[in-house]
Design goal:
By secondary structure, this protein is of the alpha+beta class. It contains six helices and four strands; from the N terminus they run αααββααββα.
Length: 155
């Protein structure tokens, strides 16, 4: 294409107003949709790694946290490893979910899990305790509610 042909083509487009009427608005929309919007999506996304969890996910996370405690779990006066405690609480939860006296499995909340399963012995009523490796000892319910609060802080 020579310089003269190019100028003729451009002048024909300009004369018809086609570029101004149709092409320019379409280009503008593409710029908005594909360049400006994605640039600002990060402003609306959660960037702290905190996402809301379902109740089932919260219970699972709490169980895993029990299994990783830096210390021991005291149940009815006996000391247990964190892994043993997690296994025991999982067993209690499954038994409770299948009980006719308990809520339906889908109705379990993390709060209910702490109150009914992870805070005291069903048989003796003795509160479970956590003894940390530094020697500090607290009721398991206190520690679990604090952990739950951390999970829910991003709501």
């Amino acid at each position: 294409m020579t310089k003269g042909q190019f100028e003729t083509t451009v002048s024909q487009l300009s004369c018809k107003g086609m570029f101004v009427k149709f092409i320019r608005p379409i280009c503008f929309l593409f710029v908005i949709l594909f360049e400006l919007v994605p640039m600002h999506l990060h402003l609306y996304a959660k960037t702290d790694g905190c996402y809301p969890f379902t109740e089932e996910q919260k219970i699972e996370k709490l169980l895993k946290k029990v299994g990783k405690i830096q210390g021991s779990f005291i149940r009815n006066g006996d000391t247990h490893t964190p892994e043993e405690a997690e296994k025991h609480l999982r067993y209690k939860l499954e038994e409770a979910k299948s009980s006719i006296f308990a809520p339906k499995p889908k109705d379990w909340t993390a709060k209910l899990f702490i109150e009914k399963i992870a805070s005291k012995s069903f048989l003796t009523g003795t509160p479970y305790r956590i003894q940390f490796s530094q020697g500090k000892e607290i009721p398991s319910a206190d520690w679990l509610f604090a952990e739950l609060a951390q999970m829910e802080i991003c709501k």
